[in-house]
Amino acid sequence: MTPATFEIDALQESDAARCAELEKLLFPGEHPWSERAFREELRMGHHYLAARDRNTLVGYAGIAFVAGPPHAEAEIHTIGVDPAYQRRGIGRELLRGLLVVADAAGATVFLEVRTDNAAARTLYEDEGFTVVGLRKRYYQPSGADAHTMRREPRA
């Protein structure tokens, strides 16, 4: 459960620099997203959430719709939580916030997760995702494999 001091709200363009800073901490050895990448995601109208401890951004998550009705589909683009704040339920709350948006649109949701990230995969499975595929060498430059996971919409 998220402690009472945490607030989930909309990610703002002014949060992009902090998101990029967290990306570097969270995804060393990969191509972390830049401040510009976060700004572009928001400008394209994708749905992004922020987790804040008072005024400090400690987590972020985003989803994009890739197909509309009658067979709506969405992709989780990213979820990240400051390492100092992990294991407090923040990632779960961010994911659930994205899933509320997807479910409201009746969307099937897809995501990719590193095959060696057991904690993330367990979170996704707990929230109804199942593995539907394997993407060899998906993450670059490390060459790590990814599982593609899917969750059907909920009423």
Automatic annotation (TrEMBL):
<dbReference type="GO" id="GO:0005840">
    <property type="term" value="C:ribosome"/>
</dbReference>
<keyword id="KW-0689">Ribosomal protein</keyword>
<protein>
    <recommendedName>
        <fullName>[Ribosomal protein bS18]-alanine N-acetyltransferase</fullName>
        <ecNumber>2.3.1.266</ecNumber>
    </recommendedName>
</protein>
<dbReference type="InterPro" id="IPR006464">
    <property type="entry name" value="AcTrfase_RimI/Ard1"/>
</dbReference>
<keyword id="KW-0012">Acyltransferase</keyword>
<comment type="similarity">
    <text>Belongs to the acetyltransferase family. RimI subfamily.</text>
</comment>
<dbReference type="InterPro" id="IPR000182">
    <property type="entry name" value="GNAT_dom"/>
</dbReference>
<feature type="domain" description="N-acetyltransferase">
    <location>
        <begin position="6"/>
        <end position="154"/>
    </location>
</feature>
<keyword id="KW-0687">Ribonucleoprotein</keyword>
<keyword id="KW-0963">Cytoplasm</keyword>
<dbReference type="InterPro" id="IPR050276">
    <property type="entry name" value="MshD_Acetyltransferase"/>
</dbReference>
<dbReference type="InterPro" id="IPR016181">
    <property type="entry name" value="Acyl_CoA_acyltransferase"/>
</dbReference>
<dbReference type="Pfam" id="PF00583">
    <property type="entry name" value="Acetyltransf_1"/>
</dbReference>
<dbReference type="GO" id="GO:0008999">
    <property type="term" value="F:protein-N-terminal-alanine acetyltransferase activity"/>
</dbReference>
<keyword id="KW-0808">Transferase</keyword>
<comment type="function">
    <text>Acetylates the N-terminal alanine of ribosomal protein bS18.</text>
</comment>
